[in-house]
Design brief:
Length: 163
């Protein structure tokens, strides 16, 4: 007879198989006890009571950022967006604009604008690069932002006077 290796399942007798197949409703177990049901109900009640339904807080920078982006994608200009958000804290608007500038610079870096501009061979190539920059600026709703123009000049060496 061959020695058994540990961890291998033993054959189940027909009587043992009948016990395994027996429906759950006929077995008494921990799942059916009233203690278990009470504990589950208590945990659910605690979870429902400790989770806030809505937080009454001032709008964060993220919310103002998403509002700004939505308005710019609807076609509103920078002046229109700033007038609609005029009741916001100036510090919050400055943070949003800074985040938008960084987003535009990041998108232009991903598009390899600097390399495309340097390797452009004729005016049509440069015009396509400038239109790509202009589109990014328009999507961000920062058409009149001088700091962004300076950042693009410093980062990519592209003078925006060519617009």
């Amino acid at each position: 007879m061959r020695p058994r290796r540990p961890g291998l399942a033993r054959p189940v007798s027909p009587a043992g198989l009948a016990v395994l197949i027996q429906p759950f409703s006929q077995t008494e177990g921990f799942m059916r006890s009233t203690r278990f049901k009470g504990a589950v109900a208590l945990v659910l009640l605690v979870l429902l009571l400790t989770t806030p339904l809505a937080s009454a807080q001032a709008p964060s920078v993220v919310n103002v950022f998403s509002i700004w982006v939505r308005l710019s994608l609807r076609g509103n200009s920078q002046q229109e967006i700033e007038s609609q958000l005029s009741n916001m804290d100036p510090k919050t608007l400055a943070e949003v604009k800074s985040r938008l500038r960084q987003s535009v610079i990041s998108n232009l870096r991903i598009k390899r604008i600097g390399e495309r501009y340097e390797t452009s061979q004729d005016s049509d190539d440069r015009k396509a690069v400038l239109e790509s920059i202009q589109t990014e600026i328009r999507f961000a709703g920062l058409e009149n932002d001088e700091q962004l123009v300076l950042m693009i000049k410093d980062r990519f060496g592209i003078h925006m006077r060519q617009f």
